[in-house]
Specification:
The protein is an alpha+beta fold and 555 residues long. It has 22 helices and twelve strands. The strands form four sheets. It has a five-stranded mixed beta sheet. Strands 8-7-9 form a three-stranded antiparallel beta sheet, with helices on one face. Strands 4-5 form a two-stranded antiparallel ribbon. A hairpin with a 2-residue loop joins strand 4 and strand 5. It is elongated, with a radius of gyration of 33 Å. It starts with 9 loop residues before the first strand and ends in a 7-residue tail after the last helix.
Length: 555
């Protein structure tokens, strides 16, 4: 058991002026168990900006104990520290102390171009902090932050400032900055103990307890503000559509797409701190609902778990419905074809540049957008679902069964093997209740001896694509055992799972190749009908007749 502290921690606050005086005197030290510096230039700038604006920057924790003479570094600042009986060792707050000392005590002369993360300039015109310019010297109205901490140094800089007469407001801004920085109070705990092990425990608990904020939580706090419009509340509201649970990271990608931003990248570098996105979140909610209704009603995709690569497919559909919330019946039909044509060749797994190419095709003109989208999906040279033998079923996500097989199994409206009742496929998909019924785990199955087959198909296909049915687990037995038993389930039940009596006979006899051959014979017509009816490659993709009518005024 760790020992308790014999004295309660002292609570106090340090002005930044006092804190940095202690740094200069060598009193402030960094324990050996502290982590290396991790902060970026943006982190350093944000801390100094928070100090200037009076924002809280957290509480420091110091360990007061003897400190030997040593050379101490705080970023670019080097201190030849003498020994001290009252050393303050930064147990929590090393990054903050280093950032403050590194910027405000920076040793470089203020007018030189800096090349590290600690040289910052305060723009006297905009009240904003900037890093040193990559090339050349900074503008004359940029005040070096290492002139701010010492009032004499600041006054000396202002006496040489060429804009002091033309812009007296710049002088006031500089004096206001210096006062804000020097007088800012940093709360701190100071612990007195001789037991370093206790400090290590405190350090560990401070830095590992709890859970870091997710990107979605930070987004809610910075850009939404209202709990009723948070990403979490939107995802909860979308559950009423019976489409499954939309993950918050997926919703955040959709928000970026609706905003017209690059949804393949994070939001941190694309949004500004003063952006308000509550209205964008509302528009995303509406567009997502329209996209989900389209998927369920027009594209026959009733659940998120059937949707391949939703980070692309659902997000791009959301963008379309944000721009075109009420597309014409013809547009909905063509949009469904476009979606399925991507699907049957595994095309929804996209590189960022491919996703953005599709994104760029979705414009304000509904008909032209759809024609552009259709033009991006070329006519297939070979239809794998119409080839003889065991087909190649695209499975870029390497899930079993593949998305197309999942859709086919759900389309059969599966029934309970024991009671014959229709199953709730939504609940089963939520639980990923796909049960393998193959005689054994199937490696790649050789093609039939007769009949032509594309070599590429056989190089990719594996038998497990046909090994599953969608059914809940059973108490004291398994779906496979029920199917092997006599008498078998009714023909209606078997048909609802893409099964037939020859499949069951192969299961009873443990004939793996026969099992897969018979399962393919039953399921491939289902896949064929599904794909042909949804892709309609042989039909015209012309836009609606209304869009081709030319007004008399345009003649």
């Amino acid at each position: 058991m760790p020992a308790p502290l014999t004295r309660r921690p002292e609570t106090k606050s340090f002005s930044i002026e006092d804190l940095l005086d202690r740094v200069r005197r060598g009193e402030v030290r960094i324990p050996d168990f502290q982590r290396p510096l991790r902060w970026t230039a943006d982190d350093v700038r944000d801390l100094l900006d928070s100090v200037y604006r009076g924002y809280p920057i957290g509480t420091l924790l110091f360990w007061r104990r003897e400190a030997p003479a040593a050379s101490v570094s705080f970023g670019p600042v080097r201190i030849d520290a003498p020994s001290s009986s009252q050393g303050l060792w930064a147990v929590d707050g090393q990054q903050r102390v280093t950032a403050l000392a590194g910027v405000l005590l920076h040793p470089a002369y203020g007018d030189e171009t800096g090349r590290d993360d600690f040289q910052l300039y305060f723009d006297l015109e905009t009240d904003e902090l900037h890093p040193a310019p990559a090339e050349g010297v900074p503008p004359p109205h940029w005040l070096p932050m290492n002139e701010v901490q010492d009032s004499e140094s600041l006054l000396h800089w202002l006496s040489r400032y060429p804009g002091r007469e033309a812009h007296p407001e710049h002088l006031r801004a500089a004096i206001r900055l210096g006062k804000a920085i020097r007088e800012y109070q940093v709360p701190a705990y100071v612990v007195d103990t001789a037991d370093e092990k206790v400090l290590r425990i405190i350090f560990k608990r401070l830095n590992t307890a709890g859970r870091p904020l997710t990107d979605e939580e930070v987004f809610n706090a910075l850009y939404v503000g209202s709990r009723s419009l948070s990403l979490e509340s939107v995802t909860q509201g979308l559950r009423e559509l019976g489409f499954g649970s939309i993950p918050e990271p997926l919703l955040l990608r959709a928000v970026l797409a609706v905003r017209g931003l690059d949804f393949t990248r994070g939001y941190q570098k694309q949004l500004h701190q003063d952006d308000e996105l509550a209205e964008t979140v509302q528009r995303t909610d509406r567009a997502l609902r329209d996209a989900i209704v389209f998927l369920k009603r027009d594209a026959l995709i009733p659940h998120l778990r059937l949707l391949p690569a939703p980070e692309n497919s659902l997000v791009l559909l959301t963008r379309f419905f944000q721009l075109h919330p009420e597309p014409s019946p013809r547009s909905r039909e063509l949009l469904s074809r476009w979606f399925w044509r991507h699907l049957v060749f595994g095309g929804w797994v996209l590189e960022p540049e491919e996703a953005l190419e599709i994104f760029a095709a979705i414009r304000s003109d509904e008909e032209r957008s759809i024609q552009s989208l259709l033009a991006q999906v070329s006519h297939p040279p070979v239809r794998w679902w119409d080839a003889p033998g065991l087909p190649f079923i695209p499975n870029p996500g390497r899930t079993q069964p593949p998305p197309l097989m999942r859709i086919a199994l759900v389309s059969l409206q599966p029934r309970h093997l024991l009671t014959g009742a229709l199953l709730d496929t939504g609940e089963l998909l939520d639980a990923e209740d796909f049960q393998s019924i193959a005689p054994k785990a199937g490696p790649a199955v050789p093609p039939p001896a007769a009949g032509p087959i594309l070599p590429i198909a056989w190089s990719f296909v594996t038998a497990p694509a046909f090994a599953y049915l969608l059914h809940p687990a059973l108490a004291r037995t398994s779906p496979a055992a029920v199917l092997r038993a006599e008498p078998p389930p009714s023909e209606e039940i078997l048909r609802s799972h893409g099964l037939g009596l020859p499949v069951l006979e192969a299961m009873r006899r443990g004939l793996e190749v026969d099992f897969f051959r018979e399962r393919v014979r039953v399921l491939m017509p289902v896949l064929y009908q599904l794909i042909e009816s949804r892709t309609r490659w042989d039909d015209s993709d012309r836009p609606s007749l209304q869009s081709m009518i030319i007004d008399d005024d345009e003649d």
